[in-house]
Specification:
Elements: E1 2-7, E2 10-13, E3 18-26, E4 33-39, E5 46-52, E6 58-60, E7 68-72, E8 78-83, E9 92-99, E10 113-114, E11 118-123
Parallel strand pairs: 2-11
Antiparallel strand pairs: 1-3, 3-8, 4-5, 4-9, 5-6, 7-8, 9-10, 9-11
């Protein structure tokens, strides 16, 4: 099993920044790729970004490219999502997820383990 715990959400004004963290524990060697997804009211779960824990390669949704950055620490036990120039449409519950597949997948079905989510609210 892989356990994921997110933190760092909150309320921020439009144009502001937040950094989300996701601590990975348990059988971490099974988690090849880490991803961030978000769920907004009335919308389906949306892919945000993914990173390979081994190679560091990344993938982003077009809606956040050039504003968000996903990274991992050297110990590969924490994954971050730096969010800059936030917009009201970024308001959502953000979830960290882990996949045993090496693919930087945007489909949530690839991810077997999920955190509890952290709320991000961007005011206009």
């Amino acid at each position: 099993q892989v356990q994921l715990v997110e933190s760092g959400g909150g309320l921020v004004q439009q144009g502001g920044s937040l950094r989300l963290s996701c601590v990975v524990s348990g059988r971490t060697f099974t988690a090849s790729v880490m991803g961030w997804f978000r769920v907004s009211p009335g919308k389906d779960r949306e892919f945000v970004a993914a990173i390979s824990r081994t190679s560091g390669k990344t993938s982003y949704a077009d809606s956040v490219k050039d504003r968000f950055a996903i990274s991992r620490d050297n110990a590969k036990t924490t994954v971050y999502l730096q969010m800059n120039n936030l917009r009201p449409e970024d308001t959502a519950v953000y979830y960290c997820a882990a996949s045993s597949s090496p693919l930087l997948a945007a489909r949530s079905s690839y991810y077997a383990w999920w955190g509890q989510g952290t709320q991000v609210t961007v005011s206009s």
